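Shipment paperwork, digital attachment
Item: protein structure file
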Amino acid sequence: MDFAWGAQYRTFWRLGDIVTITPAQAFTFIDEREDSIGDSRLIVNVGERGASAKLYEYPGSYHNGAANLAFADGHAELKRWLDPRTKPKLRRGTMLPFDVPSPNNPDVAWLQERTTAKVN
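Attachment content:
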């Protein structure tokens, strides 16, 4: 991972890598917005939290303001986003900016809790 927070947090490549959080807490797949896809994955900035939180890329909100997620234990959830900053209006053909400040966004905090764990 090229990001500054990469050395402090785990990257889960296989089930055995998921430690500290349980497979039921770690999402493996998520809808991503078409105007946010910059690579092959949804990047969640876990290094900046609370008042410093940022949306690096945007999760999908195609399902009435919600996204589908699959978790490492095999279950799936539909997560409804609470903060309007997580689901800006879709403008086809125009990319959203990356790493946008989103202070105290509860959706960013929710994603951060289910993305990775700190390296011990």
